[in-house]
Amino acid sequence: MKTKRLVIESKIDEELIKEAAQLLKKGEVVAFPTETVYGLGADATNELAIQKIFTAKGRPSDNPLIVHIATKTQLFALVKDYPPYVEKLIDTFSPGPITYVLKSNGQVAPNVTANLSTVGVRIPNNKVAYRLLKECNIPIAAPSANTSGKPSPTTADHVLDDLDGKIAAVLDGGNAEVGVESTVVDCTKETPLILRLGKITKDDIEKVVGKANIISGLKADKPKSPGLKYKHYAPDVPLILLSEDKNMQQVIEQEKAKGHRVGVLVSKRTANRIQADKIITLGIDDQEIAANLYHSLRSLDKRDIDVVICESLPINGIGSAVMDRIKRAATSIL
């Protein structure tokens, strides 16, 4: 079965939204755009529908899913016993690229939460996603719409590259704007704990609630959030991340001496100073680099190069999330 592509033009086509919503309500899996990346959606209350997500992605069953809803009221209908600061965060950042991990009241299917007592919920800031969620009027669980372990999709083409024939449809709403997944915040304790970095930073959150902690290390045995246990975002070729004190051209020459065809991932300011077999320019500033990151990782083809070298990038703002993703994708760090 070929995946149906439902293309949203400049004006949102309500008939396509209704078609996608009907598929979701029938227990099918549909990819759709959010402001961060494309999500792979299924009815969060339907255990069999959720299993289709895990099957299509090849995703481990102990990796919980994030639930997407359209309104604050729908969010609170899925959770219980939340601290007072949660409403402050929601009123400040949602709709937007942030996920709240809260105590589940049992409304979503157990395979959404990986049988944990918590559930991650967010309100996406994307017109197509909002219309779809309003039309469905059910919570939609939606991890990134890619094969597990590969770079997340920021276009419908990326979704089809991985999942064509494995899902019912993709709602094509153009490029995702942010380019990296949402910030995930554990809100089950007195102080919020950031589990995954995204566009909304620790400083942003602390301006609202006074104090926030951030999880240390890259892995967790029983993760409350996606991205804490398994390798993610890996391109098809080995990726070497350089620390700031390393000379990139010197490392390139060392790899060439091994007979390797070398690609590089660099900011625009570095691109003109480097010679390599393939140079991919991520962008000028942190926002542009974030938006281009996954497309760039997906463009690394072992038919063209044998290894890719990535420079360390600035960690201001969303740059922290970009470096987090690159570290998770890296085969080695020099």
Automatic annotation (TrEMBL):
All copies of domain YrdC-like, residue ranges: 14-200
Localization per Swiss-Prot or TrEMBL: Cytoplasm
One Gene Ontology molecular-function label: double-stranded RNA binding
Binding site for ATP: R59, N63, T118, S144, S152, R196, Y233
PROSITE patterns named in the record: YRDC
Pfam family, one: Sua5_yciO_yrdC
Reactions accelerated catalytically: L-threonine + hydrogencarbonate + ATP = L-threonylcarbamoyladenylate + diphosphate + H2O
InterPro entries reported for this sequence: DHBP_synth_RibB-like_a/b_dom (IPR017945), Sua5-like_dom (IPR006070), Sua5/YwlC_C (IPR038385), Sua5_C (IPR005145), T(6)A37_SUA5 (IPR010923), TC-AMP_synthase_SUA5 (IPR050156)
Family matches, as SUPFAM superfamilies: YrdC/RibB
Record bears the keyword Endoplasmic reticulum: no
Residues given in the record as L-threonine binding sites: T36, H68, R122, A142, S182
Keywords annotated in UniProt: ATP-binding, Cytoplasm, Nucleotide-binding, Nucleotidyltransferase, Transferase, tRNA processing
EC number assigned by the record: 2.7.7.87
GO CC field: cytoplasm
Primary enzyme class: transferase
GO terms classed as biological process: regulation of translational fidelity; tRNA processing
PANTHER family, sorted: SUA5 (PTHR17490), THREONYLCARBAMOYL-AMP SYNTHASE (PTHR17490:SF16)
NCBIfam families: L-threonylcarbamoyladenylate synthase (TIGR00057)
Function: Required for the formation of a threonylcarbamoyl group on adenosine at position 37 (t(6)A37) in tRNAs that read codons beginning with adenine.
Family to which this protein belongs: Belongs to the SUA5 family.
Protein name (record): Threonylcarbamoyl-AMP synthase
The organism of origin for this protein: Pseudogracilibacillus auburnensis
